[in-house]
Amino acid sequence: MKINKVFTAQAKAIGGRDGHVTSDNQVLDLNLSTPKEMGGPGKAGATNPEQLFAAGYAACFEGALGVAARQAKVKLENVSVEAFIGFGQAEDGGYGISADLHVNLPGFEQAQAESLVEAAHGICPYSRATKGNIEVSLTTTTNAA
Predict the structure, then answer these.
(1) What does the similarity note say (predicted)?
(2) Cβ contacts of residue 104 below 8 Å, gap of 6+?
(3) What's the structural domain count of the chain?
(4) Residues 43 and 54 in one domain
(5) pTM of the complete model beyond 0.85
């Protein structure tokens, strides 16, 4: 799929999973450490690629929810999106990730909330990029904030 780029994010990694990442504007300036569960040192104060992906996916998905809500002519308040990115060995012997998105839309009926989440899943660039490539599960709740 070809896109008409309006923005390009840039980040540089040095040292792999136990290295360092920076963004071109230096706002991101983070140490990386492989989690202990993956055989790494799990250094305190460091992040990992899966946490960074989870943060990006959650934020992007919430933005897509805003688009879906505008299209449905409804207002969102106190929405939250929590992304859980799993890492493990794939059936083919390589490694893979999975994504579980927990979306809370307080004040909505369950069916309407699920409809908005499905619409957002079709809009979100992260969801579109991962479609058919990784397992993505969506959980929708309507709990008061």
Answers:
(1) Belongs to the OsmC/Ohr family.
(2) 79, 80, 81, 140, 141, 142, 143, 145
(3) 2
(4) no
(5) yes
